Hints:
The complex is a heterodimer of chains A (103) and B (477). The longest helix of chain A has 37 residues, at 57-93. Chain A has helices at 16-26, 57-93, and strands at residues 2-10, 31-37, 40-47. Chain A has a 3-stranded antiparallel beta sheet, with no helix packed on it. Helices cover 47% and strands 23% of the residues of chain A. In chain A, helix 1 crosses helix 2 (57-93). Chain A contains 2 helices and 3 strands. Chain B has 477 residues and is of the alpha/beta class. Chain B is built from 18 helices and 15 strands. The interface between A and B is medium-sized, with 25 and 33 residues.
Amino acid sequence: MKTLFSIDIDRQIFKDEVISKTVYWQSADFVIDRKVKSNVETITFQTSNDNNSKIDIELVMSKFNQKLNDFKLRQIIEEETKDIRTILYVKAFANNDNFEEYE
Amino acid sequence: MLKHSLTTITLKSMNNVIYYLLPFYFRKFSDNEIIVNEIGDYLIVPAGTSQRIVNKQITKDENVFHDLLSNYFISLTPIPDLIEVYAVRLRTKKAFLDNFTALHIFVLTLRCNQNCVYCQASSLKEDACNTDMKIEDLKSAVELMFKSPSEHITMEFQGGEPTLVPNLIRFAVEYAEEINLIEKRKITYVIELLAICKKYNILISTSLDGHEKLHNLNRGKTDSYDKVIAGITKARQYLGFDKVSALMTTSNDALLFPKEIINAYLENDFHSIFIRSLNPYGLAVDNTDWEKYSSQFVQFYKETLEYIIELNKQGIFFVEEFTTLILRKILTPFPIGFVDLQSPAGIINGVIVYNYDGFVYASDESRMLAEIKDYTFRLGHVNDEYESLFYGKKSQIISKSWSTECIAGCSDCAYHFYCGADPVRNYSTQDDMYGFRPTSMFCKKHKQIIDYIFTLLSERKEEVLPIFKSWINNTCG
């Protein structure tokens, strides 16, 4: 396994959920190691592919950063709207609770 | 100078309105962003708009403010005044769940008189009579079907080739009619057998892959095309023109013939086609390079759709049905009946399969896995209780990964309203019901197709929207 590069992320800026979702979409192409020390998380990208020269590291880093910011935005929307989403689903489906639990 | 600054500040504060976010999703789209609300309504907005919405930087004097407000992306109150309307619309989008399982597939035999290269049903030779369904199992299956709460039931007969066992088709239809004298449900049948079809108002769906060369090539035969066209003609004469439909499958060879396939459908007086990709099940699994096929299929889909749009512009009404299903989800408040694009998934909720051996499976694809000795989606036997089959432990396990709203990679996706969850496909292609979206071909394919449809809707709206609306208005979902 060869290490390609590492990124340090401030977990006060990017929450664990945001980092996890970002890493999820990168994990098809890389083995990703995560280590947390204090409020800093170090993300290390590794590959088992010997042909590393074909990997554009700058592009991978750029996409990672872009996804990180996108997922942070999604997280804010999720946190700010989760209650109204629950109310919406309750109002939409609450009258459908006349079924029996089946074990 | 000072006065001018003060005026500017006052105007800005007048235009700044306190607003609240409602749930929405976004995706980069060319140089713009597409934003989608909780019921699938969309807006295409300049890049960076999602960030501005979240930062509460959208001001009242911007056109987009009113679009966001009227389309449930933002609200002026913590709970929108029209929350009840919004909830009804959400309920309507999920109305396909109201009646539970409507499509009941009966696999009457695995025997087949064709030899299709893309066969996913593990069909056997005509003399393999041990794969015919037993009458007592068929009887139990029909009885189970009537335990479904759905008012409108569709019985679909599959194989193999179901017409090789006309006695079973006749028994199933007549037994269903007998029970229905009391039940009085609306039943639609889909099979191939003229006398019974005429008597019970049965619809016929048959394979037609395209022009003669391709259709025969897919079956390793020289006369299959002539026979199927003769059969279609005869059935139309006997039953009526609208009682016969055709279904194509995009084999590897078909990828080379987008125009020829459409022309063959037109020559045979069909006015729609469902551009259907190969499925990674049964015998088809080993016959294809799926990564390569998937990207070629998307290109094929685009070329075929362009050709169909061109025909419509020339005044020839012809519908691409897969596009129409997605358009119906994007442009109308209504749900669709297509089980592959539903959340919660169509398996069990919309379709169930009674296999030739008497076992019950979650979907057609599930029973195809069973032919390679994988019984993960076997729910039980036709003699088991209805509740243990449809609500039992197996169904409960499957249900944990059948909603796009709840699974990783889908729940954040702006397109999850237009797509569907498919635990059987995930399991078949990734050895895991839950699935892994970064490598999912299903995910990649649908994103590319939906992106393309949105590109058409945004960049060629004047040209395509009237055509798309005519497709939605003249088909049923």
